[in-house]
Write a structure and sequence with these properties.
mainly alpha; about 70 residues; globular
């Protein structure tokens, strides 16, 4: 599929994992982490909340796409 090929070509997963490290320079672009107690009570136990966007173009950009798919 096209999305698989895109992920392989740009190494999105590895870049996102590097950004989650607090020493990375782009870490400040991520939203604040959820509380550990809250994560335990949610169905979708993701560490970072997903982004809300008004446009489909922004949702397809790197950061929102990564937050939705690579956690």
């Amino acid at each position: 599929m096209l999305s698989d090929r895109r992920d392989e070509q740009c190494n999105s997963k590895t870049l996102f994992k590097q950004i989650t490290n607090q020493s990375h320079i782009l870490h400040r672009l991520l939203p604040a982490k959820r509380d550990a107690q809250l994560i335990g009570r949610l169905r979708s136990a993701k560490l970072y909340p997903t982004c809300r966007a008004r446009t489909a173009r922004f949702l397809k950009s790197f950061l929102p796409y990564s937050l939705a798919n690579f956690q």
